[in-house]
Specification:
- By secondary structure, the chain is an alpha/beta fold.
- Among the domains are: 44 residues, Helicase, Ruva Protein, domain 3, CATH 1.10.8.420; 102 residues, 3-Layer(aba) Sandwich (Dna Topoisomerase Vi A Subunit, Chain: A, domain 2).
- It has eight helices and six strands.
- Strands 4-3-5-6 form a four-stranded parallel sheet. A two-stranded antiparallel sheet has the order 1-2.
- Strand 3, helix 5 and strand 4 form a beta-alpha-beta unit.
- Helix 1 crosses helix 2.
- The longest helix is centred in the N-terminal third of the chain and has 13 residues.
């Protein structure tokens, strides 16, 4: 970028460009939008950013972000504690929660297995998941709730599949049902453009109409 723009604007554009999914053009538009915004709006945004981590903690049960530990979901007596949905990232849990169809609890891995990127089991919250199952093996309930089913809701990518397979193997020997979310054609998708693996899983996962 040339020195045509003031340094403060250039710095802001550079910081926006570091955000995921924000390219140079988008960063420039965001900076210009803030420049035209009232000062109180900018101050409010700045306070929200600087205070982002002040009141945020990780739930030591499910490893989701929350304002308190345990989080609202884990502490909610109406949730089915015997049903755990395992997701890669926090936003995956948010997406599932928006469906209002899941009444269990979550476990956030904070990533997926990716040897190329140096991400192995120790970098994820897999051991913490196994510990939850172990604690639930005590049916007296002294250590934790009995876990009846673990739903693997990792992404249908090579890394996501490898992560699900690793967790499945890690839970062998426990009296717990391990399931995988159904995968198939997305709403609005065309059959002719679907890959073979997606079509195969869509056929295998077909149901009554």
């Amino acid at each position: 970028m040339t020195n045509f723009l003031p340094k403060s604007i250039r710095t802001l554009i550079e910081e926006f460009s570091r955000l995921p999914g924000v390219g140079p053009k988008s960063a420039q538009r965001l900076a210009m939008h803030l420049l035209r915004s009232p000062r109180d709006k900018i101050v409010s945004l700045g306070q929200a950013v600087t205070g982002l981590k002040d009141d945020i903690v990780f739930c030591e049960t499910c490893w989701n972000i929350a304002e308190r530990n345990p989080c609202y979901v884990c502490d909610n007596p109406s949730r089915d504690k015997s049903l755990i949905c395992v997701v890669e990232e926090i936003l995956d849990a948010v997406a599932i929660e928006k469906t209002a169809e899941f009444s269990g609890v979550y476990h956030v891995l904070h990533g997926r297995l990716s040897p190329v990127d140096g991400i192995g089991p120790d970098q994820l919250k897999i051991l913490e998941l196994v510990k939850r199952i172990e604690d639930g093996a005590d049916v007296s309930g002294e250590k934790g709730p009995k876990i009846n089913e673990v739903i693997l809701a990792t992404n249908p990518s090579l890394e996501g599949e490898a992560t699900a397979l690793y967790i499945q193997k890690a839970l062998i020997g426990f009296d717990v049902k391990v399931t995988r979310i159904a995968r198939g054609l997305p709403v609005g998708g065309d059959v002719e453009y679907a890959d073979e693996i997606t079509l195969m899983r869509a056929m295998k996962g077909r149901g009554d109409f």
